[in-house]
DNA sequence: GTGGTCTAGACCACA
DNA sequence: GTGGTCTAGACCACG
C-alpha cells in the first residue's frame, strides 16, 4: 500500500498515516492478519522519523486496528470495540457542512453510497 | 445560541466554536442575516481569550459562513462555494471507521438519516 | 510533591512518574483540581527530557487521572472508569508472590490494611 | 500445566511465563520437587524462541522459585527469602489504583479474599 | 533485527 | 508560555 503524506498541511503526519491505514483496512486493501512495514521501513519509505512512524502505530494499536508484537512488525486486526464519539461527531459535522454547501438529503445519501462503492466497503 | 466548549479535549477551542456555529446554521438555529456576538462579547461570555474568539470568526469568514463588517459585528450568511475537500475526506474517513466498527451499509445510511432528523436539516 | 526516579532500573521513567502520581492522588497528596507542574518544569526538575515528561502526562491523561488543557498545565482529576484488567492481574500476581514468600492469608490481609493506613487511603 | 501466552500484549513473554509459573506454584498446580519441561521442550510447545524460555527459567531461578541442574531439568522449589521490594511496591500500586477506581477498603479486602479462593491459596 | 525508550533541541499551534 | 509535533541519533530489551 502507498501512503500519500502532506507535510505542509495542518494534520499531523502520524494522524495522516493512521487515517490512511484505517481507510485501507476498510476498503480491503489491507486485510486482517496482513503485515505492515516495520517502523524503520515505514520511516525510511516516507522520509519521516522513526518516532513519528512509531507514534502512528501506537495510535492504531490503541484503537485496536493493529497489534504490534515484539517478534515481528505490526499486524492488521479488526477492532473489537464500536465507533467512538469522535466518529459520530465527525460524521454529524460533515453532513452539516455538506447540507450548507447546498446538497439535499438525497444527494448526501447518494454521496455516502458512492463512497461505499469507491472504497469497496461491501454491504 | 449556546456554546458548549470542552477545554480539556484535544480539539482547539476556536475549532469547536467554528464547528458548533456551522452545525447551528445548518440546523436553522442561526439564520442568514442574523447577528453573532462581537469578538469581545463572545470571549467574555465563554471565558476565553479574545484572540481565540477572533480566530474562530476569521475561520468562519474564510469559509464563507459569516461576513464581518468593520464594526466587529459578524453576520451569518450561506456559503456560496461547494464543500471543500476536507469535508469529503472527513466524510469518507468517518464512514470507513463506522464500517470497521461493524456497521453495515444500511445501518450507516440510516444513521445519516437520523442525523438529518436530529439536526432538523430539512430535505 | 517530590518524585523519586530510578534511572538505572528496568521500569521506564515515564511509567515511574505515572505510578507515583497515581499513588499520590490515591493518598491525597494530590487533590482533584490541583495543578501539576508543566512538562518543561517537570523535565527540568527531574533532569529528564521534555518528551519523557510529556509521555508520562499523556499516559496519565489516557487513563483519566489528569486532564491537559491547552491553556494551562495538567490538572488532577478523578478517573471515571473502573480498574483495568492489568490492575486485577497485578494484584493477583502480587498476592501469589506474597503467599509463596511464606505469608498466610491473615498476614496478607493485614498488610493490605497497613498499606491503607500508610497511604491514608481512607475508608 | 498449560501456559496462555499473549504475543501481542505489552508484557514480555519470558515475564508472562515467570508470572504464570509463580501463580501455578502458589495455587498448588505445581508442587515443590515437580519437574518442569526442558527449555527446548517448553520453547517448542509454546512456539517461542529457546532464548526466551531460557530467560524465563533464569529469572525464576534467580528468584528462588526453581533450581536447574546441569541436565537442563528445572525443578520447582519453595523460595527461602521473603518477598522482594517489587512485590510490595506492586501491591501498594495496585491497591491505590483500585481505590481510585472507586472501590472502598472493605471491597478491596474482599477482593483479596476472593483471589485467595480462586487461586486456592489456602490459609 | 524488532520495537521501546530516551536525549537534545527545534518549530509551531494554541491561548 | 503552554503543550504538540517532529527530527536525528543513540541505547537497550526482546526474541
Provide a brief overview of the structure.
The two termini of chain A are 23 Å apart.
> DSSP strand (E) fraction of chain A?
under 5%
Number of domains of chain A: 2
Radius of gyration of chain A: 16 Å
Average of the residue pLDDT scores of chain A: 91
Largest interface: A-B, 40 and 41 residues
Quaternary state, please? homotetramer
Quickly count the helices of chain A. 5
Helix content class of chain A? 40-55%
Could you name the CATH homologous superfamily of the largest domain in chain A?
Winged helix-like DNA-binding domain superfamily/Winged helix DNA-binding domain
End-to-end Cα distance of chain A: 23 Å
The biggest sheet of chain A amounts to: 2 strands, antiparallel
Unreliable residue stretches of chain A:
none
- Any idea what the shape of chain A is? globular
- The CATH architecture of the largest domain in chain A comes to Orthogonal Bundle
Descriptive account of the structure:
- Four copies of one chain form a homotetramer.
- Chain A is mainly α and 123 residues long.
- Chain A has two domains: 64 residues, Winged helix-like DNA-binding domain superfamily/Winged helix DNA-binding domain (Arc Repressor Mutant, subunit A); 36 residues, no CATH class.
- Helices cover 53% and strands 5% of the residues of chain A.
- The first copy, chain A, is built from five helices and two strands, in the order αααββαα.
- A two-stranded antiparallel ribbon of chain A has the order 1-2.
- In chain A, helix 1 packs across helix 3.
- The longest helix of chain A is centred in the last third of the chain and has 16 residues.
- Chain A is globular and about 50 Å long.
- The model of chain A has no long low-confidence stretch (mean pLDDT 91).
- Chains A and B meet through helix 1, helix 4 and helix 5 of A and helix 1, helix 4 and helix 5 of B.
